[in-house]
Amino acid sequence: MISLRIVGNEVSALGTAALAMPLRFLLRGQPFDPHAPNPTPVVLVHGFLGDPTNFLALRSHLAARGIRNFVNFSYPPRLDYQRLACRLGQTVEAVCLHTGASQVDLVGHSLGGLIARYLTEMDGSRVRRVATLGAPYFATRIPPRELAVFGAYDPFIVPPHPIYGPHGRIVLVGDCGHWSLLYHPAVLEEVARFLSFPLGLVSRPRPPLALQAS
Asked: In the chain, which end has fewer C-beta atoms inside a 10 angstrom radius, N or C?
């Protein structure tokens, strides 16, 4: 049963997202820093009816961990994620060409996570890792390069079932809904740990949050 606290967290997250939209000017004109502790560019993909400012809290948290090169992928409200994934792929290629990076990391919320996952599965040569927050899923297994984070009280995306899946590198946050995935401290830390872990190695989700890891 969803508690009043969970509902309050969702309302607060929606309010925070709405109030942050005028702050788009903070996201412009940030040069690529090849000397950052973790220089891999991170492409942020918002959800349906979302906005690049939805990731302000995550950007701040990642920057404190040495992840400072961000690119926003924005799109008008639409649901054809396959075509949006093609556009995202073009953005990724442009980022690699501009920065000299061989790969990028993707972070997507809701539909944005589905777009990022689809690109990774179809043509992921330019994708190092992908983190999805409350993203829809249509298969029984999450791609090996993906960290999938779900809210246990998400009213839109049903959390994974421990038996029927999907399975993979999955983190289930017990006191979290859909929009609060963008601001929950445990979610921000899991994404930071996943993206900052040394290349070729993968961090394991912490036991209190992990549904299943492989």
From this structure: N
Radius of gyration of the chain (CA): 16
Domain membership flag for residue 184? yes
Q: How many Å separate Cα 134 from the centre of its chain?
A: 8
Phi, psi of 133 (to 5 degrees): -120, 110
How many domains does the structure of the chain reveal?
Answer: 1
Structure tokens at 170: 């999955």
The reply to whether 152 falls in a domain is yes
Please name which of 191, 184, 181, 171 lies closest in space to residue 38, comparing C-alpha atoms.
Answer: 191
Strand 104-109 with 146-151, pairing: unpaired
| Model pTM score | 0.90
CATH of the domain at 147: 3.40.50.1820
Instruction: Give 132-151 pLDDT, tens digit per residue.
Output: 999 999 989 999 999 999 99
